[in-house]
From TrEMBL:
GO terms for molecular function: DNA-binding transcription factor activity. Pfam families: MarR_2 (PF12802). It comes from Sphingopyxis fribergensis. Gene3D superfamilies: Winged helix-like DNA-binding domain superfamily/Winged helix DNA-binding domain. It comes from the Bacteria. Residues 153-204 form the HTH marR-type domain. This is HTH marR-type domain-containing protein.
Amino acid sequence: MAEFENSQRELLDALLEALLALPQSHAQIERYEVEIGPRGRADALIGAYIGRQPLLLLVEIKAQLFPRDVREAIWQLRNNQAHLSNSGDDREIIPFFVARAISPGAREIFREERVGYYDLGGSLYIPGKKAFIFLDKPAPKKGTKKFDSIFQGQKARALHEIYERRQDWLGVKDLADASGVSPATASETLTELERREWVDVQGAGPSKQRRLRAARPLLEAWTSYASDQKAPTVRRYYVPKGSDALALALRLDQACDEAKAAYAVTGEVAAQIYAPYLSSISQLRCRIEPGQKLIEALLNLDARPVAEGWNLGIIEAKSRRDVAVGQRIDGVCYAPPLQVYLDLLQASGRSRELAMHLRSECLDK
């Protein structure tokens, strides 16, 4: 008990509190750090009564859990369960995982395998034969940050490239070169996708490659993340004689060419190019690389900052690398469809409706 880590005690205390909050329930920790069989062990054994049904929870404690983490762990816990079942204890033995956060994919595997779990968000699953409990809640904020880190910063840039090349096998060097991120970031991104079981894998070591196979789950998770985020800063301008957004896009191309500034049109105008839906568009959203080149491009357009009545919105970009160009169509550079989709999710008006149309036409295929 003296060596039992504080973080593990914290998780077990939270689990006990959740169990005791159930109607007609009782629970207590019977043993810590239990040796089971010749090579097995468990972090704890918890005796419980749920609705007067006696249970013994065989508990394994983890920090976070992703799909790839749980399969071998389940196998080991099942072996421990078998050893305990032969010990003469008449209670139903439930293999059980406790973690600070459990990803949606890992939860699904646990339910398929009828393995219990609890996390600090309050999710609780006890698949007893006569005492069944299922409370499904969002992952706790600290755990969510870990799960969502793949959609942020440099990893997000690498993830965009993986999605755009979802038919291709990619190694770490391939991904780093194509996306402009460091080899370390490319490796971390691919590893996280592998933990979620969203990629197929071939080879090993330096020649190891992955290919995206779960594009839809990735897109669903990214949609959920983007929908919950604060919209990026958009600086609004009025450009004279720019009432037609497509005509303004051509003027933007010329202005950025003269300033030697990288840019990419996104939002409604880009979505209309990829998947026509709206009858008319009066506002143009884009990204332009920051600094002096942005200033020169705006001067070339005679753009004036305004609070209302804008027709040009510049989404804040921190560096040239934040300006992702998908295709150049009819003389205009457009952001990739995935970036356009994510930008629309964070815009207002009919943008979300347009995002769903773009997704059905270009991304869910």
